[in-house]
Amino acid sequence: MPSTPLIAPVEPDRRYGRPPMLHVRPPADPEQWVRSHRDPLLAAVAAHGSVLVRGLRLRTPEHVALVLEQLEVPPVTEQESFAPRQPYAEGVYPATKWPQNEPMCMHHELSYNLDFPGLLLFACLTAPTDGGATAVADASAVVDALPHGLVERFERQGWILTRSYNGEIGASVAEAFGTDDHDAVDSHCRAAGIDVSWQHDGTLRTRQRRSAVLRHPVDGRRCWFNQIAFLNEWTINPDIREYLIGEYGADGLPFNTFWGDGEPLTQDAVQQINRVYEAHTSRTPWLAGDLLLVDNIRTAHSREPFTGPREVAVAMAAPRRVADCSPTIEVNPS
Questions:
Q1: Residue 247: alpha-carbon gap to chain centroid
Q2: Cα(102)–Cα(196) distance, rounded to whole angstroms?
Q3: Where is this region: Disordered (predicted)?
Q4: Within 10 Å of residue 279's Cβ, how many Cβ atoms?
Q5: At how many degrees (to 10) do helices 267-279 and 148-157 cross?
Q6: Residue 42 neighbours by CB distance under 10 Å
Q7: Ordered DSSP codes for 115-148
Q8: 1 falls in which pLDDT band (50, 70, 90)?
Q9: Residues of each domain in the chain carrying CATH 3.60.130.10
Q10: Would you state the CATH architecture of domain 142-274?
């Protein structure tokens, strides 16, 4: 137990749309502070879904790896990534590369996998000049605010993610699966309930069906847990979407999402989801050294456009299985 009790983070300020925040006096040893406050920190995340710790003065990816170690939660290795990135350390990665003038919409990390991280750590090593917040949204509030008919259909049918690994846009086969050996990729996909189609030119296309709503394995709350809007064609910049379709065809987009029966999503349906996310978004501009802890099931996150340099390290931990979260869609790995 810490010698000085941890002051509980303030409740989210709905009027200003800010997440729970804890201000600490800068410690001489941030890792020691995290080790001493491990239990109340994790309790704060469980109570609020996320908490921003300000004052730790984290400076390097090595600091983040040490913080993760002090929390004593198992790291998670990223699989089936949609954009390439090399890890700093086990479970610790740079932020996903994404055009800095484009938003990265609300999503849950690796929500298209059967295994995913239950806890995320975001550490701001260099704050941008303007913008660039890692915003959060309560997934339980989102599922309650979405149109009933839309949620009911997704609960009943699930959602489909299609991917095309064309070697030019997004992660390559080797970057997503750790190998470009066809047999090894096929084996991974069979175990993950992913349909595989190798094209005549050697490129890979995949299709997987997943639950859109899960129940939190700790408290049973119902959560909107997916990347339906983020990875959909209607969320892509219109000019880029037009170029990609012209270059690769409508079936060859790097990623796209559909209703669980395969019917294309309308632009209106995707905009409805994003509007509800925006209405439930909490954001606070980054300061260098900040640490944001996020329950990856209960809380979605996004990245807003920014200017200037921005370096954020991301740690994935506390592995979870979809099968333990009351999925509405049964996936039968073959």
A1: 28
A2: 30
A3: 1-22
A4: 12
A5: 110
A6: 18
A7: EEEEEEEEEEEE--SEE--EEEEEHHHHHHHS-H
A8: very low
A9: 21-96+115-136+284-322, 142-274
A10: 4-Layer Sandwich (3.60)
Query: Cα–Cα distance between 163 and 145 in angstroms, integer?
Result: 29
Cβ atoms within 10 A of the Cβ of 87, count? 17
pLDDT digits (tens, 9 = 90+) for 274-299: 999 999 999 999 999 999 999 999 99
Rounded to a whole number of angstroms, the CA Rg of the chain reads 20
Q: How far is CA 95 from CA 121, 185, 210, in A?
A: 11, 25, 25
CATH 3.60.130.10 for domain 21-96+115-136+284-322, yes or no, is yes
Q: Annotate 6-65 with three-state secondary structure.
A: CCCCCCCECCCCECCEEECCCCCCHHHHHHHCHHHHHHHHHHHCEEEEECCCCCCHHHHH
The whole-angstrom separation of Cα 71 and Cα 40 is 11
Cβ atoms of 320 and 214 closer than 8 Å: no
How many Cβ atoms from other residues are within 10 Å of residue 27's Cβ? 15
